[in-house]
Amino acid sequence: MTFILFIYGACLGSFLGAMADRYVTGESPLFPPSHCATCSTRLVPWQMVPILSYLLLRGRCGYCQAAISPTTLLIEGTAAISLTTWTPTLTLPLLWLGLWAFAALCDAQTQTFPGWLSWAALGISLISQPWSIILLATSLFGLIRWLWPHWSHPWIGDGDLEMMLGYWVIFGSLSTAHWLLIACGLALLLVRTHTSLAFLPYLTMSALACWLWP
Ligand SMILES: [Zn+2]
Predict the structure, then answer these.
(1) What is the tens place of the pLDDT at every residue in 38-79?
(2) Considering only CA atoms, which of 169, 196, 162, 199 is closest in space to residue 184?
(3) What is the mean pLDDT of residues 180-199?
(4) d(CA 74, ligand 1 centre) in Å
(5) For residues 20-47, b (16+ Cβ closer than 10 Å) or e, as one string?
(6) What protein residues have CB closer than 5 angstroms to ion ligand 1?
(7) Of 79, 116, 172, 213, which alpha carbon lies 20 to 30 A from 146's?
(8) Rounded to whole angstroms, how far apart are CA atoms 29 and 48?
(9) Cα(60) to centroid of ligand 1, in Å?
(10) DSSP at 144
């Protein structure tokens, strides 16, 4: 079962990475079929196997030898390992995490992500929550949505806050504090820029770390 989940996870990671790349370039999710980002040559099936193809091709395109980002392997590997933790009760949190991981992949490259994603993630986080939490979370979500367009230079993105809200709803206050501490620590350690920073990737890395090593 673990091996099957690992394969599903690797495929899911590969799909999320490809969809994020297409969001960044503005390509349709369906057309053209999978191709090299440099020479645009269409890939054959054995070049599209998650994890294995990257290793067999030694991280290069089989046609033009352009380097394929190691992030591809990292995303596929992380998604594969994350999904091996699946049990039926963890379906919704994993789905929520997958959505925000996709947002983080888009955010890392463009500092934006598809707008529908926040709504979908909020909906997932509120399933089977008490009415008091649903009312509080939707009010706070509405407040963020209303305030941010009026704020000329916000010092934190609305997407970051929406992910924090969802994390708090699903995992509780103490876990949220740990998660934020690790995310901020990672950003301080890894960031070498003083301009605006895509924070969702750090929040997602921290969430995955907390997920895999609770
Ligand atoms: Zn190529």
Answers:
(1) 999 999 999 999 999 999 999 999 999 999 999 999 999 999
(2) 199
(3) 88
(4) 20
(5) bbbbeeeeeeeeeeeebeeeeeebeeeb
(6) 36, 38-39, 61, 63-64, 66
(7) 172
(8) 16
(9) 8
(10) H
